[in-house]
Amino acid sequence: MREAVIVATARTPIGKAYRGAFNNTEAPALGGHVVRHAVERAGVDPAQVDDVLLGLAAPQGTQGYNIGRLSAVDAGLPDTVSGMQME
Q1: What residue numbers bound the domain in which 61 lies?
Q2: Is 8 left (phi over 0), alpha (psi -120 to 50) or beta?
Q3: How many domains would you assign to the chain?
Q4: 31-44: pLDDT as tens digits
Q5: Residue 45: exposed, middle, or buried by beta-carbon count in 10 A (0-12, 13-18, 19+)?
Q6: What value does the mean pLDDT take over residues 70-79?
Q7: What's the pTM value of the predicted model, to 2 decimals?
Q8: Are residues 30 and 62 in contact, defined by beta-carbon separation less than 8 angstroms?
Q9: Nearest Cα residue to 51 out of 40, 60, 61, 39
């Protein structure tokens, strides 16, 4: 890869930790929703995506298992798409 291009950004919803509407939602499901809609919003063919990079703070539970990769899989991107997280 010679050039990195950011085609879209998105974020997960905000809620009260352990008490909010999303407290029982696994992190990869939230991340997958964000990735899927960012790709759709950008109008990019999912097969053209090379990498998914997610940033997060203080990963816990299911967030700690390479959330970038799990979110890419949950978003339905091809298995060839790599994923990573940045803290």
Answers
A1: 1-87
A2: beta
A3: 1
A4: 999 999 999 999 98
A5: exposed
A6: 95
A7: 0.81
A8: no
A9: 39
Give the separation between CA 27 and CA 53, rounded to whole angstroms. Answer: 14
Q: Is the Cβ–Cβ distance between 37 and 11 less than 8 Å?
A: no
How far apart are the C-alpha atoms of 82 and 49, rounded to whole Å? Answer: 9
- Rounded CA-CA distance 5/12 in Å is 21
Distance from C-alpha of 73 to C-alpha of 81, rounded to nearest angstrom: 8
Burial of residue 31 (number of CB atoms within 10 Å: 0-12, 13-18, 19+): buried
CATH number of the CATH domain containing 4: 3.40.47.10
